[in-house]
Amino acid sequence: MENKKILLGVSGGIAAYKACELASLLVKEKAQIYTILTQSATQFITPLSFKTITYNPVYINQFDYELVEPLHIELCQKADLLILAPATANLIAKIANGICDDLLTTIACAYKGPVLLAPAMNTNMWENPITQENIKKLQEKLNYQIVLPASGELACRTVGIGKLAPIEEIAQKAKSLISGQNPETPDCKLKNGKLNDIKVLITAGGTREPIDPVRFIGNRSSGKMGLALADEAYERGANTILITTNAPNTERPYKVIVVETAHQLQEAVENYFDTSQILIMSAAVSDFKPIQFFNSKIKKTTTDSDWHLALTRSPDILETLGRLKKDGQVLIGFAAESENLLKNARKKLENKKLDLIIANEVRPEIGFASDYNEVYLISRDRLQEPKLLPKTTKTEISKQIWGFIEEKFLNLKQN
Ligand code: CTP
Question: Which of 170, 273, 285, 288 is the most exposed place for a label (fewest CB within 10 A)?
Answer without folding.
Answer: 288
